[in-house]
Amino acid sequence: SRYGPKMPLAVDCTAELIRCKVLDSSGRLKSHELILSYGLALVRFVNLITERKQKMVSIPLRQLAREVDIPIWVVDLRHELTHGKLPRLALCRKGCDVVLDWLRKTYWSRQLGNTLCEESEDEEEEGVEANAELDNDAWE
């Protein structure tokens, strides 16, 4: 709440994805409504996170996602949600889980001094190197 309209993207994306999981577990929404809810949160995540890396010349989302270590199938899921037939709910749930794990490793564990990360030191170093370009300013 201190940030007001300048909420860091990772915080905003995490909140939307957790909101989807809470709505899902409540049992109040139909499958189609859940797909739309997860879908919007996943589309916003991919768009907002990759948008910071876009240059003057348009760079394909798959390339941008690769640069920040987002699984390509999540970008493909975003493409289907945006331009194709809506995917199954199970795939949207899996996408949400993968993206929340990415946010945990890439953003939240850094904010909390890596105390949330349960990776081995080797995996931790690889993740840090792969995401070295993502400094705190990239999330604001």
From TrEMBL:
InterPro entries: Las1 (IPR007174). GO terms for molecular function: endonuclease activity. Pfam families: Las1 (PF04031). Residues 118-140 are annotated as: Disordered. GO terms for cellular component: Las1 complex; preribosome, large subunit precursor. GO terms for biological process: maturation of 5.8S rRNA; maturation of LSU-rRNA. This is Ribosomal biogenesis protein LAS1L. It comes from Apaloderma vittatum (Bar-tailed trogon).
